[in-house]
Amino acid sequence: MRVNLNVAIVAMVNNTSNEPSNTSRNIVECPELLPVKTEDKHIVFKGEQYNWNSREQGIILGSFYYVYFAIQLLGGLLSERFGAKWCFGIGIGMSGVLSLLTPLAARWGTAAFIAVRVLEGLFQGVTYPSITTATSRWSPKEERSRISTIVFMGVPMGIVVSMSVSGWLSSTDLLGGWPSVFYVFGTVCLIWFLFWSTFMYEFPADHPGISKEELQYIEKDQEEKLQKIDVPWKDIFTSLPMWAVAAAHFGYIFGSFMLVMEMPSFLNQILHFEVDVDGLLSSLPYIAQVFGCYISSYVADRLRKSGKFSITAIRKCSNSIGMIGPGLCMLGVTVSGCSPWITVTLSCVALAFCGCTYSGFNVTHVDMSPELAGILYGMTNTLASLNGIICPTIAGYFLMSGPTIANWNKVFYITSAMFIVPGIIFHLFASAEKQPWGLTTEKDSKCEVTKF
């Protein structure tokens, strides 16, 4: 839902009336790529096209995150208070409704289009904290890495489907061309909501079909829950391990957003791929990420069961691979020149490494405090989601003088640094042990707390 616009916008924008000199400059830079494009095939996009320049496109792509970042903490609080089932379900369901309205909003004008994207960000802002809360309630301690990773594997899998299908839909006559992207995914979200609301249960004990043995296995390591949530705000905000997790989350999302939001434009502007091929190639790295996610989570849980390594050591090792590896790959992209296959291969390897973070910082929120996992994730994702605004702004700034290889390399240098530096910070200062402020039962908690 968030990334389909990154592909569809290629079809929505009338590039023939925008920055023609830059287009010709790109062809001169990579002349050997011209034969790669399908001969005698020039895609004529269906549906209205808009004269949005690079700056306007950056604003449109970033508009989803104008409210999204600010709603994260509230999403964590709401999911802990009222339940992850309905917070997550309503967030996705309403996003589906807004997706169906997107083509109409685009016809009304740029302001209406941006308003719909802002509202989508508002409703989706509760989803990550909510699913983290649900994961903490359904995950046995020994299988936490794998279950959390399997849940979050839906992100790269969704990106694979969204980017490849969006590219194909944008180049067809189905439902008017690019508008079909929003109609199809909006409809899928509404159908999903019906299944979610029917078959999802808030707690394992609520499930009518769960066995007594399975329930005991899931709940054996879970702490006593309070009727009211005691949130030790002061201790959380002054916790160095917590800030290390926040730094890793920020850096990872920065790098991921650059790949998700800007790579389709790079493949189109520099390497001259048509939008249908562009969407497919942009999705390939996320297939690699799915495999990286599962392999790293399996290894992490095996190491944890062996008892030879501390949980902190496992998280730090996984996270270092998952952030320093992609940073080095992004440096490789800067020297790949006009080679499309080296660029795509490095992107695939980068996101395969990124999969390791799902056994790194991404699950550390649950390790530090299972009871407050949704709130903690909401806090770090608040900072991380600012990248939805920061990334297109930075890319737009460096590409303002033209989408040349030199300008794109500046974007990739920054992306590399934002992977590597926060990865080092996490390795030095993070902890995956349950924190003193994470003990939220009334009789054990000695922290300064605020009741919600």
What's the SSE blueprint?
Layout: H1 4-12, H2 20-29, H3 54-62, H4 65-68, H5 72-82, H6 84-108, H7 110-124, H8 127-138, H9 144-152, H10 154-170, H11 179-199, H12 212-219, E1 230-231, H13 233-237, H14 240-269, H15 275-306, H16 311-334, H17 340-354, H18 361-368, H19 373-385, H20 387-398, H21 405-429, E2 450-451
Antiparallel strand pairs: 1-2
Notes on the structure:
This protein has 452 residues and is an all-alpha fold. The chain is 69% helix and 1% strand. The protein is built from 21 helices and two strands. It has a two-stranded antiparallel sheet with strand order 1-2. It is globular and about 60 Å long. It starts with a helix and ends with a strand.
The number of helical elements comes to 21
Helix content: 55-70%
Unreliable residue stretches? 19-27, 32-42, 441-452
Give the averaged pLDDT, no decimals. 80
What is the assembly state of the chains in this entry? single chain
Helix and strand composition category: mainly alpha
Rg: 22 Å
Total count of strands: 2
Please trace the helix and strand order, writing H or E for each element: HHHHHHHHHHHHEHHHHHHHHHE
Strand content: under 5%
Shape: globular
Strand arrangement in the largest pleated sheet: 1-2
Main sheet makeup: 2 strands, antiparallel
CA(first)-CA(last) distance: 31 Å
Main attributes?
single chain; mainly alpha; two-stranded antiparallel ribbon; 21 helices; MFS; transport; transmembrane helix
Summary, kept brief:
With 452 residues, the protein is mainly α.
